[in-house]
Each structure stands twice: as structure tokens, then as C-alpha cells.
TrEMBL record, chains B, C:
One of its GO terms (biological process) is cobalt ion transport. It comes from the Archaea. CDD domains: ABC_cobalt_CbiO_domain1. It is a peripheral membrane protein. This is ABC transporter ATP-binding protein. One of its GO terms (molecular function) is ATPase-coupled transmembrane transporter activity. Belongs to the ABC transporter superfamily. GO terms for cellular component: ATP-binding cassette (ABC) transporter complex. The keyword Manganese does not apply. Pfam families: ABC_tran.
UniProtKB/TrEMBL annotation, chain D:
Its main location: membrane. It comes from the Archaea. It holds the Pfam family CbiQ. Keywords: Cell membrane, Membrane, Transmembrane, Transmembrane helix. It is a multi-pass membrane protein. It is found in: Cell membrane. This is Cobalt ABC transporter, inner membrane subunit CbiQ. One of its GO terms (biological process) is cobalt ion transport.
Amino acid sequence: MHIMEGFLPHPWWEIWFAASLPFVAYGVSRISRMAREQRETLPLLAVAGAFIFVLSSLKLPSVTGSCSHPTGTGIGAILFGPWITSVLSTIVLLYQALFLAHGGLSTLGANVFSMGIAGPVVGYLIYRATQRFNLYFAVFLAAALADLATYLVTSLQLALAFPAADGGVLLSLKAFAAVFAITQVPLAGIEGVISALMFKYILQA
Amino acid sequence: MSEILGLRDVCYIYGDGHAALRNVTLSIESGSKVALVGPNGAGKSTLLLMLNGTLRPSSGTVLFKGEPMRYDSRSLRDIRKSVGVVFQNSDDQLFAPTVEQDIAFGPLNLGYPREKIERYVGYALSYVGLDEHRNRPPHHLSGGEKKRVAIAGILVMEPEVLVLDEPTSNLDPATSEEIMEMLDELNLYGKTVVISTHDVELAYRWADEVVLMDGGNVVRTGTPERVFADPDVVRKARLKLPAVLEIYREMLGRGILVPVDEMPRNIVDLMHLIESAAGRSGRKPGRIYICDISATPPSRIRDILSSGAVRYIGAMGTKAKMIASEELLELDFSYGVVDKCVLKAIAGKSSLIITSGGMVEHAERRIRSYAEEFGIEIEVIILPRAHVSTLADNR
Amino acid sequence: MSEILGLRDVCYIYGDGHAALRNVTLSIESGSKVALVGPNGAGKSTLLLMLNGTLRPSSGTVLFKGEPMRYDSRSLRDIRKSVGVVFQNSDDQLFAPTVEQDIAFGPLNLGYPREKIERYVGYALSYVGLDEHRNRPPHHLSGGEKKRVAIAGILVMEPEVLVLDEPTSNLDPATSEEIMEMLDELNLYGKTVVISTHDVELAYRWADEVVLMDGGNVVRTGTPERVFADPDVVRKARLKLPAVLEIYREMLGRGILVPVDEMPRNIVDLMHLIESAAGRSGRKPGRIYICDISATPPSRIRDILSSGAVRYIGAMGTKAKMIASEELLELDFSYGVVDKCVLKAIAGKSSLIITSGGMVEHAERRIRSYAEEFGIEIEVIILPRAHVSTLADNR
Amino acid sequence: MHRLLDDHAHDNGLRDVSPKLKLAIGAFSIMACIASPTPAVPLAVSACLSAAVILLARIPWRLYIGIIAIPLSFALLSASVVALLSPGEEIMSLGALSLSREGLWLGMLLVSRTIGGTSSLFFIALTTPMTEIFSILRSMGLPETLVELSMLIYRYIFVLLEEAMLVHSAQEMRMGYTSIRGSISSFAMLASVLFIRAWERGERLMVAMDSRCYSGRMPVGDDHSVRPAHLVVSAIYILSITAFLLAVIRSGLA
């Protein structure tokens, strides 16, 4: 779920850039180190990034009928871990803004934080915690909860920028979360199911 | 024959304003074999995607059985069941984790009952000769096998029209011929087959009707002889003349041959023209045996072979080839079998064609028509019919 | 000629235990045109990837200029600079965002200075005729254009050997011929060219040396005539005979022709055999004008055309074709030009070939060798040389 | 979506303008929109840049209207939440919710900023091909790895997207996506086959790069030089918007 260009006021758009920067910078340094050691790193991460972009540009079959797209970052976190996924997500989010008009440039920091960092970190931790029980269930849970985490963080980002008159950030968070829940909660479920099925099909093939 | 698919004044303009089709009018007869030929970018693939409603004309109408095509989801479902499209690159078409699941994809989505799906998938698998690969992932198959799976995935929905974009691209000659023969077989059993290709040899030999396209226009349509009659038109469309035709034209130009009404379609025709021009004849032609494999035990074929009555052996159709390979029969011809046997017969050598079912009559008819055309007598012996008693005794 | 690349007893076994190459021994002469032919899965691509060290033999040795190949990164870099590989699917090869950046990839990584990179890239771009596409992303190009960019990206490193996997797959006949002609031109200027293909017509016509592969083995190597001499071997490798050869064999079988030492390589040869068998001769052959476009103003070509001295006009080489299209000359032949002009000359018609630089002598040599072979006199007139004074006057 | 905005950028009428200049205009416009306390400045930015995109870059207006509607739905939904939560003098009551004058104003401001910001974003996206931005990214001192990875991802997006479209239409031809169940399994098959294909491509990409002597460098394109006329027009635009912005801020303070 992208925050559109122009929507986040000063100082919030700067704050989210600052919050994302350390994660992405560390991710880039990890990739640089890996690329020096293993030459296949760059080509494989390149196709993985392109894969995440293409997946997230396809319209999901959705119950609500709205124009909803998978984030694909939960899968990324499972495969590459959260650091590298944060770098791939940054590039993918930039392209989504420039090629598809999803998100924006000033809001890139906020979007990277919700979709490229918070979601993948949650997904990765869930996957590591539940992996030993059942692989497919772990993938389902990781992808679905990564989606939910993204949506909650986005709601929080908006709530912090636009606190309610009485009740402040908390009330505002409730309001945003409630409005976006209509599309985002079913979406998270669908992305979870699709991710689990995708793993199953890949392992079968 | 009646029109099964038609285009009337169809234009198609891509998002960037580039016109892929310009006022195309075309009629495809039910039961025919149609080849769209033209250079890369001529609009062939775009036209094919019109035939099952994947692309919708910017202007003009597409007709299916005389009715203008409609693009609501119900109508599209019906049209896509009736007109199956096989893509050029099989990898784009095979997306399920195993061969079996891939073939079952269509029937499953059509809501067929489980038992029916299994039966149909089994039938389609054995039709394309890939039973033993049913549980393999498609991306581990060879190019030819992938193409067969792609065709099976369409056949299983029992379409009336089979549309194939460049069916032989990236396949070696023998695999190409096997695929084309499979299409012949399907056509013989009533399906209309439409292909696109820039292989002029293939189009010239295989098609009933050739549609020559260039720059989004249909430049010429008609029998292969008619379409390829004008070398300038063919060259402008960045194609070349079929070799047989080019040699024929060179011989005309040198006065070695004189023009005839019907241009040669293949080497058999060309040889006949040359021989009659040279005033030759008199050699006693060889025989052609046709053996219906579904009614003949393989031992009988071995008997014929060991008797020395035939010099060459060929197999037509998927089933015959499977049996030949099981029985370790060394085939001389596995594609273009009738033509080759007729050539051998004219050269005085006898041969045996093994095939099955309706293909027997088809082969016989083609031999007879060659014989008539050339004014020679080729003796055709159809095996289980003539020897049915011997056969019973042998058991 | 000396060996530039060699394989000695090379085996290659994939991770799954499947042997892709079995004891392959092969020698590629410097400056030759080699075609690897064989069915899908014969091991052609595996062999090609041995030639620049991408794959390392499981056993046996690969030699480059007589030295066993070494696989440390420094040696690999040297070998890859000398042996350039163009992949079958151009999309696998073009990975930079624009045409220009893609072509610059090799030189940049070889550490050329900036100015040299720019010069080389500019040269390669204009050589393949894609100057105006330099800033396009590869996904906006046609299949033929992508192939040209892929070739340019290799040429720019000035390799001694050019290796191309199925260079004409998915290209229409005219585009294929243009690519093959470009390879001829490069060969003429000294590069060794190795291709893989299952297009037998192409291999038979184009190659100096054919390597027939099947099931990981080299079945036969030699001149095209020698490799395609045995129809059984060719058929077993799931290939077919080239049409000219098949027609020749049919004519032999019918006694229309008698066996000759050298089998016909193309239609010109075949026609000559037929004509001499029919005891014909006597027609006065046409002339062939060869015009070096780099030394002739286009107005001179128009003069010749309007004088009625020639009936047909053809262009050889990238530069000649570009000028022809700029000058709106309507070309009769844009590929296989020499052959076609010789055919026309034998049929008594004159023609004009426009070309440039070293290609002039090449064309002349080929015409002379045809003339000698057929024992006829074809008058070849080379334009700027013969008319150099006239030319000066015209200015 | 068969064509990405980048595809239009390669053929637009402002292709020859220096990409640095275009980026500067876009970035300035975005900042101006966010900084503006009233809807007037973002709407002025939007009017100027939309005119530039349609009239100068010659992007079809139908396409432009179509894509600008995408972010609007998000903006309207979020802005109405903000509007309803904001404190102030109540002007309308909707059951438990109430809309204040200040809330309405803030909502309108947010929608206008989104419109202005999106116009600025589209100005960049539709006039400056990504291929020309890479060299700017590199000269901005972004890490080499990040720029190289971006370049490779750029190229493979188009390769994989085409493949995804083909697989998707092959599935549609065989009645995928006709029911919810079928849709979900079709989509998962598409994703899995795309992943496998992507991985194989990655391996082939490695071979291709190695075959061309890869030693860790990716070429970038050249920059266009800035032409004086372009500079003058840009300066007029930037100065006018800045003046407008300052005037609005001062009058707001007064």
C-alpha cells in the first residue's frame, strides 16, 4: 500500500527517509560484499528484483474487486532475508513510482520503511519462528503478516502526520486502519495463500 | 465448405499508435489448413490473437460461424473453448508444475467433473505420446515434447479450430515434421488448423490456403501455388520462394521445362514434370503396401519385411510411430511418408507404410491422386483387408 | 591454414549425470566458416560454450592456438576477448539499459580508455547499421535489430573468433540472410566464424566446414558436400537433406543426371548440371557490373541504370544497402547476390552489383570461379577502376 | 498494463532536454507543493506541468487523464479520513463523525498537494527515460552496487513483464481467472513459473556477462548539455512558482 506523492507533510517525509536510510545502507554494503565474493550475486538479485516488480505490478484476484496488488516483499524476505530485501524494495518502489504511478518520490522513504523494511522484517521473523512446523504454513503466515505489518505501519505513518483532534495519534491510527482494512486484510490473506501455493508449485517443479 | 472464422475490415492499433493490422478481411473455411506467412512484424501473431478474442479489433468485426464475436466474459469463454491457441514459445504456455496438471488446467477451469478430467487428460497425453512424462515438470522436457504438451493442453478442451503461432520455430527438421504431421492428423479428423510461419517450404507444402501478410496488410490469399506465383510479391514480403518452385522457375527460364497449368508442389511433382519433358516413361513402378497397425500384429510386419517384398518402410501418425519404436522397426521415413513412397514407387522400388484408422484411407487417396496426376499405375495393397484370413491363420 | 580452436577427446557431463558431449575431437581452422548441425539436444550449444571457456570439459582438452585452455580468471578474460559468443536468445545477451551502453559493456570492462570506447562503440553501431537506435532500450527493438546489437556488442571487443548459437532462429528469411551476409563479410575480413544451426539449407550453402552432431557425438565432419553425401546419416540425426541435394539425388536415381565429382551446392550449380546434361549451351551469357559504392557517386549508378545496360541490381554488404536505401534504389537482390547475378548471366541477362571495399574483389573472385567451373565466359566489369576518368569528368 | 510510463518517455517531445534540468524542475515542483500552505500553488504547478507534458512532450491527453486518476482514489480516501479527524468549527455532521471547516480545508490541501506532486512525478516519468537517470544517480554519489543493480533490474523488468503478460494470456485462454479459486491458483502458478524463469534467466545473465569479460563495471549513458533556451524557460517557471509560493505564505501569515 503506497502513500502517494505530496501526501506526507514536512517534517514527516524527511523523518521516514532518515529512518529507512540505515537499513538500506547496511543492505547495500552487504550486497557489495557478497558481490565481491560471489560473482553470481548481482545477476541473481537483479532478476529477483525484476521478479518482485513484475509480481507487484500484476492485479491480484481480489474479493473486494478493487485495484489491489501484491507486495511480493514477504517472499523476498523469506528468500533473501530482510536486509537485501530492503535494497531490492527501494529500487522496486522507485520504479513503481516512475513506471506505474504507484507511490512517489518524497514519500519514497515512508514507503520503503513500511513495504521494504517493516513488512520484510516481520515476515522474516515469522518465517524463522514457524518454519520448523510446516513450510507452507510458515510461508503463508510470513507473507500474510508481512502484508498486515506493512498496512499497519502505513496507517501509523499517516496517523503520526495527521493526529486526530481529540484522541491524537491513537484515534487517527484506528481510523486509518479501519478504512484500509476493507482492502488490506483480505489482500493479506490472498497474498499469504498465493505465496504458499507458489512455494508448493516451485518445489514440485 | 463454410466459413468458420472471418475477419471483416479489421484494424488493430497498439497503444503507441502503431497499426498492427490495417483493414484485414479474411475468411477461414471450416476443415481447412491455413498458413499465414509473412516477415517478422507483419501482424501474423496479432491476427491469430484476434481469432479467439484475446485481442479486440480497434475497428471492424471478427466473425465466428457467421456471428460477430462478443467480448463479455461468457462469450469469450465459449469462443476460447472452440478456438484453441498454441503460442510460439511453449514456455509461455506451460505454467503448471507438472505435465499432467498443465493439461488438466483448461478442463478444471471449465468445471468438468473429476472423472471426466482424468479421462480426457489421459487421452490427450497418449494422443501426443507422452504418457510416461505425465508427472514431470514441463521445463525439463525437450522443445518438441514441450510443444506436444502445449498442443495437448489445448486439444483436451476439444476445440473446433486449432491456431498455432510458428509451431515449428526452434525445432529440428524431424521434430517439425512430426508436429506438422500431428496437425495433419487432427485436420483429417475434422479440425480446422491455422498456423503462422515464415518457413515458406512448410507453408507451400502443407497448407490448403496461404495468406501472405506484410506490414499489417493481407497482400494475397489463395492456394499456395497462386500466392507463391509472383516472386516479386514474395520477395517484397522478405520471404523467399520455396526451393522446388525456384528450381522450376529457373528451368522454365532456361527452356528446359515448359510452363504447365499446375506448378509443382513438391519434389514428386517436379520430377514428374522433368521426366515427362524428357519424354521418359516405361519403368515399372514399385508397389506401396499400407498396413493398418491397429488390426495387424507386429509379427506380420516382420514377415513382410523379411520376405524382401519391400525396400523401404515408413510410419504415419503418432500411434504407428509408437508401435514402430516399441517393436524396434528401423524406419526409413518418419515424415512426408506418402510423398517419399510415391517417389520410390516411380523409381521402381516398393515400400510399406504403417499407419492406423482413418489415416489408411487418407494415404491411399493421396497415392491414387498422385498416380492419376502422373498417369502411372501404382499398385496399392492394403494389408489387413486383403490378408485378413492369413492374419487369422497366423494367430 | 592453422588450427585456431581445437577439442581433444572432450567429454562434458552435466550435474544430473547426463553426458552432453562424448569424446569429441574437433579442429577449427583459422579464418574458416564452420557450421555445427544436429538435432535439438545434440550438444551443439554445450560445445559452443566450451570454445570461450564458459564450460570446462569433464575430461579432455580445449586448445586455443595450440595451447590448452586455462581456467583462471586472467586466462578466461583473454580467451573471451578473443572468442566472442552470441547467444541464441538475444534477450539473454542484452542486459544494459540502452543499445549504446550494452555495446560499451565489453570495452569498459576490458578497461579501454573512454575515448577509445566511444570510437569503437560508434564504429560497431554504424557497422551493424543501428546508429539512430543508440539511445533506445533493447526492449524497443525488433528481433533482427536485437541480434545486430548482440553481434555489435561482441565485435567491439575485436575477437578473432565469432561464435553464434542458432543465429537465424526466429528471424524471417530476408533478415536471416542479412545476418548471414554480415557474417560472410566479417569472415572475409579475417574472422573465424562458428555457428550452430539445424537449418540444413543454411549450413549447406554457407559453411566451409560442417560438423554433424548427434547425441553428444561428432558423427561426421568435412565439407558440406561430404557431410551431406550420406542421406542415412543425415536422417538419423533428425535432419533433412538440403533441397538442391535432394533434387539432385532424385534426378540421379532416375538417370536424368549422371553422378559428378562435385555435388551441386546451390541452384546455380544444379542448373549447370542439368543444362550440360541436356547438351545445351551457346546462349550468350549476360554481363555483371560490380560497382564500388565508396568510390562512385550515386548519380553514376543512376546513369548505368537509365542506360538500360543492366536488367537487375543487387547490393552486398551493410554499407551498400544503406546507400541504396538512401538513394531509393529499388534492389532486385539484397541477399545471395552473387549467385543470383550469375544465374541471370547464364540466362543471358546483365546485372549490377553495388558493394564496397574488399567485397568487390570477393564478388569478382566468386563470379570467376563459377565461370571457370561451368566453362563459360562471364564478363565482369568493375566500375570505378575501369571508368575512373569518366568518373572524374562527371564531378 | 502493457506499456509502462517509461515506454512513453522514450518518444516524448522533451526527449532532448537535459535530464538533469527535467529532474531539477520535477524535484523543485514536488517541494513547492509540499511547502505550500494553500491549494493554489500545487494547482498552479499541476497546471503548468500538465500543460508541458501534453503540449510540449506531446503525451496523449487521454493517457494522461487516465493515469492521474490512479493516485487520486488513494488521496481522496485518505484525505477524507484526515478531514474528519481534524479539530475546528463544525460545519457538517455525519452521524458520529463531524466535519470542521479546518478539516475540510486540510483535506482539500492534501488532495491538491497530491495532484500537484503527482503532476511533478509524471513530468519526470513521462519526459525522462530511466536510462538517462542512471548516470545522474551515479554522479550523485550513490553506491556503485546500487546503481548497477538498478540498471540490471530495469532491463529485466521488461523481459519478465513480457513473459508474465504472455503466460497470463495463455492462462486466460484456458479459462484461468474465471472463478476466485481458479484465479488464486492461476496467479500462484504464474508467480511460480515466473520465479523459475527469472532464476534461469539470472543464471544465463551471469554467463552472458562473463562471456563479455565482466570485471565489475556497468557503462552509463551520456548527459545532454543544457541549452540556454531551456534554462531560461525553466528559470522563469521556477522563479514564478517561488514568487507565488512566497506571496501565499506571506499573505497567510498576515
